[in-house]
User: Which sequence fits this backbone?
């Protein structure tokens, strides 16, 4: 694996895609990102002290299946082992510490025929919380930043080759989910906003929301909790 450590970059995800033109497996990290971004093209505030890195790999397309589920499971499990406090998974791939966002994951892929260039970008509020609704790990984690990043990369390197039991993974995610069955939630996708009851996750990790007696599956978008069950 080619490792690239930068002081400043536009986005480690963008840089990882550029590096995949030269190397089949890369890891790009940067102290500062000037154009860090998250899902739905949101901005990811990225100043020195926090963790910003992307792991990129060229794989066969079938390896991309259920990747989001596997990555969030692995990152969350690693955090569970080393971070104290209440950790939860907020669908699809945010990790909350005591109800506030501590980590975000952005998986992007470019597919041509049977080959996919996949980039898994991870942003972790290690030293400081950039906004009111976010949390930093620094005083809650038992290992150094360098060690934590090293372990995260180890997890990502194996995620493409593991055989997993999806039912076990999904039930683990439901157990540790910020959304609990019966919660009233609001789902936002572009202009569309709907309110319904959270029912769980489908085997391919869509969120299931019951709206007017009908269960609907959503694969991307933003969900907010309106009322606890
Ligand atoms: C999200 O919460 O929507 C995902 C945020 C992902 C941010 C990380 S920081 C490293 C990598 N580079 C980016 O530009 N984004 C990801």
Assistant:
């Amino acid at each position: 694996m080619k490792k690239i450590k930068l002081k400043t970059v536009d986005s480690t995800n963008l840089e990882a895609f550029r590096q995949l033109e030269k190397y089949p497996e890369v890891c790009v990290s940067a102290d500062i990102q000037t154009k860090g971004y998250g899902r739905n093209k949101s901005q990811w505030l990225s100043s020195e002290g926090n963790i910003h890195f992307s792991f990129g790999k060229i794989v066969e397309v079938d390896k991309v299946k259920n990747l989001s589920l596997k990555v969030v499971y692995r990152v969350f499990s690693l955090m569970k082992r080393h971070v104290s406090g209440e950790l939860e998974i907020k669908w699809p791939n945010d990790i909350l510490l005591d109800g506030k966002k501590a980590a975000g994951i952005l998986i992007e892929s470019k597919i041509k025929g049977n080959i996919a260039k996949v980039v898994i970008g991870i942003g972790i509020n290690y030293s400081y919380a950039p906004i009111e609704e976010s949390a930093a790990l620094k005083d809650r984690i038992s290992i150094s930043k360098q060690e934590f990043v090293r372990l995260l990369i180890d997890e990502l390197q194996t995620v493409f080759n593991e055989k997993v039991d999806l039912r076990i993974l999904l039930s683990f995610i439901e157990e540790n989910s910020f959304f609990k069955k019966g919660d009233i939630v609001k789902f936002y996708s572009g202009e569309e906003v709907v309110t319904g009851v959270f029912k769980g996750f489908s085997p391919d990790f869509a969120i299931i929301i019951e709206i007017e007696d009908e269960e609907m599956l959503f694969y991307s978008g933003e969900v907010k909790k309106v009322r606890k069950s």
Q: What stands out?
A: Residues 11-13, 33, 36-39, 42, 44, 46, 52, 54, 94, 104-106, 121-123 surround biotin (CB under 6 Å).
